[in-house]
Amino acid sequence: MSVRFNRAGETATNDHNDLINKGQRTHAVIDSYLTEIDEARGDKASLAEKLSIKKTAVFYIKQITQENHTVSLYIPYKGTLKTMYVSFPKPFDIDLVVVLLKGGGTLETITVPVGATFAQASLTGSLDFESLQVNANGSLGSADISICVDFMLD
């Protein structure tokens, strides 16, 4: 004995084979979606890699008041370090040396030579909800120094 349920005004379902493909996309539609995802992904290994979010931590030094002027900043993210930039509005009379530190170890050192107002360096390493520090050594009174560290979120 079998029992069939159906709503008023609809045809009855005869067996499970009638339900196999109900509401599913055709192969052509699925292929078009996959093609769209592949095009969006471009040359990246995954969409997640393509859609990575870049963040920038900014260390600002209003004025160097002592040797090894240090600024610490807690970074509440997990990610991969990419680039460090150092800039200021006018050239200084001696080289400016900026050291990026994590956990007491040096990640990168940038020297901005006399006459320049900008320098950058590629970084390797990662962040995992931790603090970074920058040490700036230049002439006392040097002002308006911005140190930016770019990283990609994991």
Structure, explained:
The chain is mainly beta and 154 residues long. The protein has 2 domains: 16-49, no CATH class; 52-153, Jelly Rolls (Sandwich). It is 12% helix and 47% strand. The protein has 2 helices and 7 strands; from the N terminus they run H-H-E-E-E-E-E-E-E. The chain has helices spanning 27-41, 47-50, and strands spanning 54-63, 69-87, 96-102, 105-112, 118-122, 126-137, 143-153. Strands 1, 2, 3, 4, 5, 6 and 7 form a 7-stranded antiparallel sheet that branches. The longest helix has 15 residues, at 27-41.
How would you briefly describe this protein structure?
By secondary structure, the protein is mainly beta. It has helices spanning 27-41, 47-50; strands spanning 54-63, 69-87, 96-102, 105-112, 118-122, 126-137, 143-153.
